[in-house]
Amino acid sequence: MVTFRNDVAYQFCPGCSHGLILDALNRALVRLERSTQGAWAPVNTVIVTDIGCAGLSDQYFATSGFHGLHGRSLTYAAGIKLARPDLHVINLMGDGGCGIGGAHLINAARRDIDVTTLVFNNLNFGMTGGEHSVTTPSQAKTSTTPWGNVELPLDIAATVAANGATFVWRGTAYAPDLDQQIEAALAHKGFALLDIWELCVAYYASFNKVNPRELKAEIVRLGFQEGVIQTRARPAEPIRLHRDQVSRSGQPPRLINPVDHRFMSNLTHEVSLMVAGSAGSHIRAAGRLVSMAATMSNLWATQRDDYPVTVRGGHSLSEIQIAPEPITYTSCRALDILFVLDERGLGKVEGKLVEMADAGRSKAAWIFVTPALVDRVRDLHSPRTLGALRTFVVDICSLAEVSRASQGLAIVAAGLVSTRLLSSEALIAAAAALSPTYAEVNQAAVQQALAALDTVVRPMR
Asked: pTM for the full model?
């Protein structure tokens, strides 16, 4: 006889309702496995949990399991279902997780993800001391509301029903048909949620002198609907329709803007670069220029940007790595090339300059600065440390045709061609591909900088 329950004994408090719900879940799963001739076998089933007493539940079943952060179980469940639509995904969470992960709950319902969620709603945080939760009834006493809860409780079932869930039920853990309702929810195609009210005997029940009959009466007192609240056919699911279309075509999804790998590079090792300047000066666009040109040259590229939350104020940094092989991280380990465009950028990378000078004895590094920074860079380093670097001045301001907004692109393009890292052709093509709106302006700036390369790039003395 197939059973989904394993031999691990429940670790819940004596009298806790969690065991009743899990026993009902097991009965529902066993019946489904029989009625589907094994399609609902344990090997095809995943139970997802998060933190809390209900979060202990995955260990009691002979299925696959995923245990994650508090309030995030639905994100994991949705991800598993999207990655493996052939699996049956069951999400078990408490009322605490519903509060912490309320946005995930709403959006799982809105997207009608084919996941069944059982909410172990014991009206408080049972694992951490009986604090009130989003579902604690008004006037109820908890360890954090000893004089009675002054807030209205969240109606979980009505919330998901209003936001697109296609199967919603509310009842208690003592309902005689609980296993049948769970079975119906599991068999339903689409997002199904059962709001199962139960007793936390350690805290909530003792604080409020509640028994199973009074728990059911509390639902009525609050004006919450019981039983099947919503059940309807699942609407067309865009994700499934797209997947079916791809499956029928036999072809992988077509990229909207595929990159044309028409250039070549002689690069044989990984190279790390950084562009440093001020927010609003198109530093990130300069970083994308490098990444795009590298990708067009049959190289791998990663980019990580750093800027304040104000976006257009403060510093702006762009770290780029390019290599002939796949790159599995985004942080630059040791810089090979550094572009510094202004004082604010210099203030963020002074330490990088020292690191590059120290490494310069065994590794040639390139630094490109604007004319306004020459004296500041000299002040930071002695002739000995500067001598360990290839330091150049890039004077784009002498090119009247290059606008201030395009200076970053022009400086980076001129520097990269000087290092022979990427070809002029790749950089010009990448500049045009950065933005359809500014394609002509970006490409013209790069072309002008490269045409005047011998004039605008000079060694720093």
From this structure: 0.63
3-state SS string for 89-115: EEEEEEHHHHHHCHHHHHHHHHHCCCC
Residue 52 neighbours by CB under 8 Å, 6+ apart? 70, 93, 94, 96, 97, 120, 125, 126, 127
Domains of the chain: 18-241 (3.40.50.970), 271-459 (3.40.920.10)
Among the listed residues 285, 265, 261, 260, the one whose alpha carbon sits nearest the alpha carbon of residue 422 = 265
User: Quick check: 154 and 100 in contact, CB under 8 A?
Assistant: no
Asked if 261 contacts 192 with a C-beta cutoff of 8 angstroms, the reply is: no
Contact 55, 49 (CB under 8 A): yes
Residues 6 or more apart in contact with residue 387 via CB below 8 angstroms = none
Structure tokens at 456: 């605008």
Residues 401, 152: Cα–Cα separation, whole Å: 64
pLDDT digits (tens, 9 = 90+) for 74-127: 999 999 999 999 999 999 999 999 999 999 999 999 999 999 999 999 999 999
In contact, 15 and 173? CB cutoff 8 Å = no
Q: How far apart are CA 294 and CA 290, in angstroms?
A: 6
